[in-house]
């Protein structure tokens, strides 16, 4: 038995209105025609079967990023000097140990700043 238009309306009791341009309605009609379905049925198929991709645009302050990169470079340079010192047979001293601890501390502080700027900390201290 063929389903009447009235029976189909009862299966879809909610009405939604959308404004379209002339080009958009023409595209809608063409695509529905290709599938051999009504506009409504075509839109329902799109709604249910079509995957929509969400694009996220990241906006960054270049000056701040350059400063962060510069700070990372300075810390890296300090760590290289410390490694060179130990690799050339240098003795451990309190000053060298303090320099190492300061570099590590600076790295963690920069990491915390970067995460905060990126909005990834969510107020959770374990992510720092």
Description:
The structure is a single chain. With 128 residues, the protein is mainly alpha-helical. The chain is built from five helices and no strands. The protein folds into two domains: 45 residues; 66 residues. The longest helix has 26 residues. The protein is rod-shaped, with a radius of gyration of 31 Å.
Summarize it.
By secondary structure, this protein is an all-alpha fold.
Low-confidence stretches: 121-128
Tell me, what's the shape? rod-shaped
In total, the number of domains comes to 2
Q: What is the averaged pLDDT score? A: 77
Radius of gyration: 31 Å
The number of helices is 5
Which class of secondary structure composition applies to the elements? Answer: mainly alpha
Distance between the termini: 65 Å
List the helices and strands and how they pair.
Blueprint lengths: L4 H7 L10 H14 L3 H11 L12 H26 L6 H25 L10
Helix pairs in contact: 2-3, 4-5
Notable features of this structure?
5 helices, mainly alpha, disordered C terminus, single chain, Arc_rbn_hlx_hlx, 128 residues, NikA-like, Bacterial mobilisation domain-containing protein, 65% helix, 2 domains
């Amino acid at each position: 038995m063929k389903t009447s238009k009235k029976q189909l309306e009862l299966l879809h009791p909610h009405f939604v209105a959308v404004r379209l341009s002339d080009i958009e309605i023409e595209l809608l009609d063409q695509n529905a025609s290709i599938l051999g379905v009504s506009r409504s049925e075509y839109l329902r198929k799109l709604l249910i079967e079509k995957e929509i991709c969400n694009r996220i645009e990241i906006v960054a302050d270049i000056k701040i990023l350059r400063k962060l990169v510069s700070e990372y470079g300075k810390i890296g340079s300090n760590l290289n000097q410390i490694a060179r010192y130990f690799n050339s047979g240098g003795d451990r001293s309190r000053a060298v140990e303090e320099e190492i601890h300061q570099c590590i501390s600076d790295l963690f502080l920069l990491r915390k700043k970067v995460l905060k700027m990126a909005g990834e900390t969510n107020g959770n201290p374990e992510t720092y």
